[in-house]
Structures are given as structure tokens and as C-alpha cells.
Amino acid sequence: MRIAIVAVGFLATLMALTINSIYGLWYLCADLVYVILFPQLVCVVYMERSNTYGSIAGYIGNSQSHS
What we know:
Layout: H1 2-18, H2 22-46, H3 52-65
Helix pairs in contact: 2-3
């Protein structure tokens, strides 16, 4: 867990230093939130059988497929 925290901190610092504008950082963040969380929102609103376990599995699966 400590290694993951250091790795994520390093990657965040690297991104902050290499991206030239705040707009670029905002666009990246908005895109990631939309891609990762939007399918879960659609399932919760329109599917009666969706639950917490499925939401967590979808979050992990979707995060893995986009990295």
C-alpha cells in the first residue's frame, strides 16, 4: 500500500509538471470521471438488479480496461 501511495503521488506530480495548462488537467480529470463513473450511474438508474457488489466490480473492471 505504501508503494502504491508513493507511485500515485509520483505520477500525479509528473502529470502536473508536464501538462502545460490547467484546462488540460481539468479535461483529463473530467474524461476519467465520465468514463469510469457514467456506466455505473446508468446501471443504478435503469437496472433494478444492480447492487453494491456489481458497482464495485464494474468500477474495478472499467478502471483496469482504461489504464
